[in-house]
């Protein structure tokens, strides 16, 4: 939509797709002369009718604002908003399943017919010669989602929240923020005095420097440690500023056990010599950039110690920065690089701490107290290894607690709150963009409950004190279901999604008896013609309450009494291909002992999803699976893009008894080329146990801490000034608000 105003900070064509996707609003503004023909209500009516078929409508305020646009502006609005919504819902492509009269065609065909059709398709790539039947009109009449009238201030606040987020950003967050930074009229409108999350600060600075949008002096305040400078060098080189890939050096120097388990997006070369270190591709920096990086390093305190954390990486960066050429200008940086290369053993804070912890020397407390974050991360170890010093440990922690970041305190509080529970596994989400989940046996020695309770109490008091300094919330309503939604601390590897949620979230499934899973993909567009074919497989496994497998629906088992698969397509083609699975919940519960249904999407042709031009999946809720179009965007509950650097993804599981979706957004490590859910059963069962055993701080806990000191809790939405709920007020999908304003 090409309507801008010189006074608008971010042009409407740039911000509207972002605002629509993130907050279900758009901004309307005008630049055409008043003499242009006034609005044609028929165009607006046609627009509303079209978006109604996608499950959306305009609010009364947006309708009135749209009527003030002239005919040209309204036509441009029409031509922009429909494609935006179609893309969000996955309705921008043609969905072409193998059996176009799915699910009836699959359920009515004999096993012999299904087998022969599959053989012919595998041999010749053809589909069954089928007459497409007229389907009855859909009987699913769901409540329309309302698009509201946004404001420039709301769009700016959204971007500021991303800049000041106290947690990592997803790739989608970064794309949105980058667009805003590139097109805003004055970038200083988005830059605060401090950016709390360091990897975000490095990424933002690298974008601005690459685009020539900010001065070095303006950005220097965000870099205080050597690792901050390393992050900036990574960002300027197009590498992930979380530096997760740097820790893979030992792993990458080992012999590869499986050619299908490569991290295909990492910008690294590994030589045939397995003893050689990988060469990371820092780009060649201009002289001004070298001065910038060395100048920032010069101003840091004790840079050598931080440099030792990424020793090999700093050596490679030093080869590009040539600190010896500027040794007189940056003597501290030059000395740090020299010692890094020449000295093998360098005493550090961390080596002193490790020695003290190993010998159980209580004097290590004073060392840790100089770095409160390190003390917080070692608190459990201190309490269980030196129980005789509990009082001193807690007193030291209390003395430094004001200097510990709120996200870390919240996670620590949750850890100690559940410390006494007997759980079989401890679950971690490692850094990186792979969507990995790690579950290890829970062998932590016990800690007395009163010690855990004391830590929880200290943290609760501190967080309440901090939150009390923020503006009042008035009367506050908190939806109880938010107790099942974790706080989105780390969105680094989160998938692009219609309704983004943190991993481990449990969300009630809407009304409807049939779950329709879907995935769509297309072939590669570049490279050798014979290597462009992409075969993506959608499969579903049913599991009992202990996550033991019962049955699967996949390309080798197209139907059961309770569900059907739409058929295995082995070539996405240039126009794309689709696979569907229908699962009738009452029939599953009646015919099996299943409680969970877990979804897996795999790439049989061995490309990572990140290599594909486009691949997405999701699910719809249908009342009657035989009515309406196979792909009805009005019934789409979630749609997410598959972009992880892996060949197998497990996006979600469904708790059929509780009628809840469990958002996993995880990958399976491909130790052998097992492509179906059945073949990956050990990994799938482990994922199920892992997500069952997750103990994470919830949004209900976070919002309650705020409400208790910033307002008054009430029991109903109607009497509330501030609402935290799934679909009203501040929702779990507004991660920018949560990270920017409540952490």
Descriptive overview:
This protein has 743 residues and is of the alpha+beta class. The protein has five domains: 1-89 and 147-185, no CATH class; 104-134 and 504-692, Sandwich (Lipoxygenase-1); 197-342, no CATH class; 350-467, no CATH class; 474-490 and 697-741, no CATH class. 38% of the residues lie in helices and 15% in strands. The chain is built from 27 helices and 22 strands. A six-stranded antiparallel sheet has the order 9-20-19-16-11-12, covered by helices on one side. A six-stranded antiparallel sheet has the order 13-14-15-10-17-18.
How far is the N terminus from the C terminus? 35 Å
Q: Given this structure, which CATH class of the largest domain is correct?
A: Mainly Beta
Secondary-structure-based class equals: alpha+beta
Kindly provide the radius of gyration, computed on alpha-carbon positions and rounded to a whole number of angstroms.
28 Å
Mean pLDDT score, rounded?
87
Poorly predicted tracts of residues = 1-6, 250-279
Strand order of the largest sheet: 9-20-19-16-11-12
Annotated CATH homologous superfamily of the largest domain:
sav2460 like domains
Number of strands: 22
């Amino acid at each position: 939509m090409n309507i801008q105003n010189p006074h608008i900070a971010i042009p409407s064509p740039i911000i509207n797709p972002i605002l629509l996707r993130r907050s279900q609003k758009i901004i309307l503004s005008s630049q055409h002369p008043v003499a242009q023909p006034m609005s044609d209500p028929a165009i607006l009516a046609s627009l509303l009718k079209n978006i109604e078929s996608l499950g959306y409508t305009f609010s009364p305020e947006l309708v009135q604002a749209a009527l003030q646009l002239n005919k040209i502006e309204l036509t441009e609005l029409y031509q922009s908003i429909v494609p935006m919504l179609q893309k969000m819902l996955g309705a921008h492509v043609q969905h072409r399943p193998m059996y176009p009269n799915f699910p009836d065609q699959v359920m009515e065909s004999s096993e012999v017919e299904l087998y022969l059709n599959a053989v012919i398709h595998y041999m010749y790539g053809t589909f069954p010669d089928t007459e497409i039947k007229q389907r009855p009109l859909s009987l699913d009449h769901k409540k329309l989602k309302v698009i509201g009238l946004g404001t420039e201030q709301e769009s700016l606040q959204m971007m500021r929240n991303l800049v000041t987020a106290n947690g990592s950003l997803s790739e989608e967050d970064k794309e949105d923020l980058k667009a805003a930074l590139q097109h805003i009229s004055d970038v200083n409108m988005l830059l605060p005095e401090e950016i709390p999350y360091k990897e975000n600060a490095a990424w933002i600075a690298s974008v601005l420097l690459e685009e020539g949008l900010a001065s070095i002096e303006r950005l220097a305040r965000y870099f205080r440690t050597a690792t901050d400078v390393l992050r900036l060098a990574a960002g300027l080189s197009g590498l992930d500023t979380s530096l997760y890939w740097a820790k893979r050096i030992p792993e990458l120097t080992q012999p590869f056990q499986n050619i299908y388990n490569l991290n295909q997006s990492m910008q690294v070369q590994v030589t045939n010599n397995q003893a050689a270190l990988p060469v990371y591709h820092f780009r060649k920096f201009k002289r001004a950039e070298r001065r910038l990086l060395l100048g920032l390093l010069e101003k840091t305190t004790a840079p050598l110690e931080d440099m030792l954390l990424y020793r090999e990486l700093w050596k490679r960066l030093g080869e590009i920065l040539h600190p010896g050429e500027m040794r007189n200008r940056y003597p501290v940086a030059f000395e740090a690089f020299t010692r890094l290369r020449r000295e093998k053993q360098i005493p550090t804070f961390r080596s002193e701490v490790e020695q003290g912890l190993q010998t159980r020397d209580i004097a290590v407390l004073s060392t840790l107290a100089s770095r409160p974050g390190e003390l917080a991360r070692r608190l459990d170890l201190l309490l269980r290894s030196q129980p005789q010093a509990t009082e001193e440990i807690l007193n030291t922690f209390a003395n430094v607690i004001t200097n510990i970041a709120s996200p870390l305190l919240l996670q620590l509080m949750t850890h100690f709150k559940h410390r006494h529970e007997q759980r079989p596994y401890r679950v971690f989400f490692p850094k990186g963009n792979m969507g990995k989940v790690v579950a290890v046996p829970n062998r932590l020695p016990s800690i007395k409950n009163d010690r855990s309770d004391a830590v929880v109490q200290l943290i609760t008091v501190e967080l309440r004190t901090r939150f009390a300094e923020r503006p009042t919330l008035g009367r506050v309503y908190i939806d109880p279901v938010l107790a099942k939604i974790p706080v989105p601390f780390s969105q680094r590897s989160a998938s692009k999604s219609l309704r983004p949620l943190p991993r481990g979230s449990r969300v009630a499934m809407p009304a409807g008896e049939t779950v329709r899973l879907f995935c769509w993909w297309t072939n590669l567009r570049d490279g050798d013609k014979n290597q462009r074919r992409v075969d993506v497989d959608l499969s579903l496994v049913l599991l009992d309450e202990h996550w033991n497998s019962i049955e699967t629906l996949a390309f080798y088992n197209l139907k059961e009494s309770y569900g059907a698969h739409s058929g295995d397509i082995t070539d996405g083609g240039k126009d794309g291909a689709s696979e569907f699975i229908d699962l009738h919940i009452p029939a599953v519960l009646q015919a099996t002992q299943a409680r969970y249904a877990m979804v897996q999407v795999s790439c049989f042709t061995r490309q990572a999803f990140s290599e594909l031009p486009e691949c997405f999946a999701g699910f719809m809720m249908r009342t009657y699976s035989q009515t309406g179009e196979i792909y009805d965007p009005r019934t789409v509950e979630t749609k997410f893009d598959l972009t992880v650097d892996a060949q197998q993804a497990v996006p979600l599981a469904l708790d059929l008894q509780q009628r809840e979706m469990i958002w996993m957004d995880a990958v399976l490590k491909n130790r052998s080329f097992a492509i179906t859910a059945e073949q990956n059963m050990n990994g799938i069962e482990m994922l199920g146990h892992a997500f069952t055993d997750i103990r994470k701080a919830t949004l209900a806990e976070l919002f309650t801490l705020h409400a208790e000191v910033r307002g008054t809790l009430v029991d109903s939405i109607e009497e509330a000034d501030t609402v935290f709920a799934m679909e009203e007020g501040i929702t779990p999908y507004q991660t920018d608000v949560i990270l920017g304003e409540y952490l």
